[in-house]
From TrEMBL:
InterPro entries per UniProt: F-box-like_dom_sf, F-box_dom, Leu-rich_rpt_Cys-con_subtyp, LRR_dom_sf
Domain F-box: 5-39
Residue ranges crossing the lipid bilayer per the database entry: none
Gene Ontology annotations of biological process type: SCF-dependent proteasomal ubiquitin-dependent protein catabolic process
SUPFAM superfamilies: F-box domain, RNI-like
GO cellular component annotations of the record: SCF ubiquitin ligase complex
Listed name of the protein: F-box domain, cyclin-like protein
Pfam families the UniProt entry points to: F-box
């Protein structure tokens, strides 16, 4: 085989090998190792600042000639006193990448703050870079370097450090129009006026996704308001832990009639009045709504959501502490025709209003994806009555539903014949006989996962008919292997008996 197969053919074969088996290719020979490295298009590395050798890293990266996506993270979080060392480490990484990865299009650098000069070198050496994720320090903060990345479409910036005494509004003239499609900002404070350059130079015509995370401000409110006023083509908006600015952003969206908005996510900190105003005044037709607002979401919001967004296809609600069963019943009636995915995670109303899930399911029979994770008081009786309405269910998550028993699995098998994926982690009420019954009676179920005691996923693959995998156990404790496959009952029972013997 070494002689018959040319390099190009081997590389093409390596491209088609599924991930669980691809790691074994590099062990065959030096030639296969070289060709396997050169065939990789994506690479993720976790580096230690204390043991990193940049010459070794450069040599390693130089063997990956077709690398287009690179993700680098640090194995240790540096304290504030070591901020300068973290910056030096990240700058050296950027220099290595600039020298060895000219074809890279996606870079995620989460090792520490970076400086201006290495970023300018990166823009010259990697002209095709379209996605960039990095950390910037508030000390000498500037966004002018972005004008050098001509192909940039997606930008993620995390701001760290204290506000510089010299921090002041950025009065440099606008000299570029960034054709960004996705912008994600994290850690913004009220005094980060250098952000104004971004609002003045980011094209409102191309931006379709905007994300704020752990932000207390938006820079200068006037510059941001002017930017939002022209932002007509926004499709996705995410606000995570941004209580101080949620109301401002939602009101601006409603005022400026952002008609193309399809997806809205708000986590951990909202505004009751701001959200209610947005729902009532907006002209957009939301398709996806994801809310985690334990103290800022009540029945009034659910009534308005049902009245305004009756074409909603995905609804995800987490930690609903202030809503009642009546609000959910009204919402279920309004969304009965189009809703395909429903998530009620850690939903307190399940404990307070017995039977509301059954009534909700009777109105939402088109749901194909259902997530009821961490509803610790969900019982077999209500689950069995509810699941009978979801005959076309394809994916189900019951993670952490500790009160459910094997009876629920039997009801699931009887009613959901097309089930493809199920999550039963941390469901301590299920016994081995119930899981075996589920596997033997769910012909379309297929999945393989390896998960540690602490929940770290070391291997995950779907629709894999053959292959092998290996992993290094770096955490103390037991590891769980879940096998779901399509077999005849006889072969599957033999496999199940083999797993029991191994355990």
């Amino acid at each position: 085989m070494e002689i018959i197969l040319c390099d190009e053919l081997l590389q093409e074969i390596f491209h088609r090998i599924p991930p669980p088996s691809s790691s074994a290719v590099s062990l065959v020979s030096k030639r296969w190792l070289r060709l396997f490295r050169s065939s990789l298009s994506a690479l993720s590395l976790r580096l230690s600042p204390n043991h990193a050798s940049f010459s070794t890293l450069s040599s390693f990266l130089s063997h990956h000639t077709y690398l287009s996506s690179l993700s680098l993270s640090s194995s240790s979080s540096a304290p504030a006193a070591a901020a300068a060392a973290a910056t030096s480490f990240s700058d050296s990484l950027l220099i290595s990448i600039s020298a060895t990865c000219p074809n890279i299009t996606r870079l995620h650098l989460a090792t520490g703050p970076v400086s201006l000069l290495p970023l300018l070198s990166l823009s010259t050496a990697c002209p095709h870079l379209s996605s960039l994720s990095l950390i910037l320090s508030r000390n000498r903060l500037s966004f002018h370097f972005l004008s050098s990345f001509r192909a940039l479409k997606s930008l993620t910036v995390v701001l760290v450090g204290n506000v510089s005494p010299e921090s002041s509004p950025d009065h440099y003239p606008s000299s570029a129009e960034l054709q960004l499609q996705s912008l994600c900002l994290s850690g913004i404070r009220a005094g980060d006026y250098q952000l104004n350059w971004l609002w003045r130079n980011c094209s409102y015509k191309t931006l379709t996704k905007l994300v704020f995370e752990n932000c207390d401000g938006v820079g200068d409110n006037y510059s941001f308001s002017c930017f939002m006023k022209e932002l007509k083509n926004l499709h996705e908006l995410e606000l995570k832990t941004c209580r101080s600015i949620v109301s401002l952003i939602l009101i601006k969206l409603a005022e400026n009639h952002c008609n193309y908005l399809e997806s809205l996510l708000i986590y951990d900190g909202g505004s009751k009045d701001g959200l209610l105003h947005f729902i009532r005044e907006t002209r957009c037709n939301l398709q996806k709504l994801d809310l985690r607002l334990p103290l800022d979401l009540d029945d009034n919001h659910l009534f308005e959501i049902g009245a305004k967004f009756n074409r909603l296809r995905v609804l995800r609600l987490q930690s609903c502490s202030m809503v009642t069963g009546e609000g959910f019943k009204s919402l279920g009636l309004a969304l009965s025709e189009n809703l395909e995915e429903l998530s009620l995670t850690n939903c307190d109303v399940i404990n307070r209003h017995n039977g509301f899930l059954v009534e909700l399911a009777q109105n939402l029979k088109n749901v194909k994806i259902l997530d009821l994770s961490y509803n610790h008081m969900l019982l077999d009786k209500e689950f069995a009555s509810m699941i009978s309405s979801y005959c076309d269910l394809r994916k189900l998550k019951l993670r952490g539903c500790s009160k459910l028993t094997n009876s629920s699995l039997i009801s699931l098998c009887k009613n959901c014949k097309h089930l493809e994926s199920i999550d039963l982690l941390y469901c301590h009420g299920f016994q081995i006989e119930g899981v075996e019954f589920l596997i033997l009676n769910s012909p379309e179920l297929r999945k393989l996962q390896v998960i540690s005691t602490y929940g770290s996923c070391y291997h995950s693959a779907e629709n894999v008919h053959s292959g092998q995998f290996a992993f290094q156990a770096v955490e103390v404790g037991g590891y769980m292997a879940c096998f779901f496959a399509i077999f005849t009952n006889h072969r599957l029972r033999s496999l199940w008996n083999l797993i029991e013997d191994l355990v």
